[in-house]
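Researcher: Please predict.
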Amino acid sequence: MHTFRKIGILTSGGDAPGMNAAIRAVTRAALSDGVEVMGIYRGYSGLIDGDIHPLGLRDVSNILNHGGTMLYSDRCPEFKTEEGMQKAIATCKKLGIDGIVAIGGDGTFRGATDLSRRGIPCIGIPGTIDNDITSTDETIGFDTAMNTVVEMVDRLRDTCESHARCNVVEVMGRNAGDITLQSAIATGATAAVIPECPFDKEQLFEKIRRSKALGKRNFIVIVCEGMGSDFAPELATEIEKATGVETKFARLAHVVRGGIPTLRDRVFATKAGEAAVDALFAGKSNLVVCTRNGKIVFTDIQYALTLDNLHKGKIKAEDIQGFSQEDVKEMQRISKMRMDELADLYLTLNRVSL
């Protein structure tokens, strides 16, 4: 079994609250086993450029409650090239980095699997507010992002009630409606608009007209950014025209990414960080740490990426080569389960909302 003397840790892609908790857990778990830890700043860009510095116990103190990532993040097109990857590998060899824990989303995992195939063992930790990593029930940052949306929408509702208005609120999530839908339920929104479920504008207009006639003064409609940048502001205009209710548009944008991570994100990040170190030291590689039914499990990164493509409708014939029929059926089962969960939540929202 490979003996680890020094490992690296990086965060890549969009930042997410809870990433610092994962960095802390990885660092302290590795140091407790006598292994040095190197912080790789600015993701894969820093790995190419050599922007790397040792992390000690004190370096990761008092970061648990901070949003963002102390290692910073970047998107690195150069790393997608063979030349860029070879530069990164050369940096690892120069500094004696025996393995890497990579925290981020699907782009981060593609980089990790490329390094693993070239001899640098990697373990991925899902860190993205969007919760769009299909192989795990939850991602680091998702819970905090939802709580941020709830807080912001609760504030908007106060002024909506005062002025008898509707507010159409666009939230982040890329093409995944998880933040939108769960936040809509938690805030008592009139409707949620997500890419995964059908949306009928006329039904929404009629619901608002009916509720207004019953005396309701405030209305909230939450829209996933995956519907397109023009969808939510145009919907606000249409609602006002069709219902006579004054309607404002609010785009929460990157405020959803920031803020103090919740207990749930801190605990999952800590458990995932420790599990990643244990897997790496056990000689495992090319895995992503996942949570399923409340338990930490591991999934092959290539399997996870293929499952994502299947779930997001981006699958190509060559993507499933090398996977058995049983593997593909299991991917289809997981994808259907995720879609059914969203559909059930969507029905719940529509049944209890006014």
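Model: The first helix runs from residue 19 to 32.
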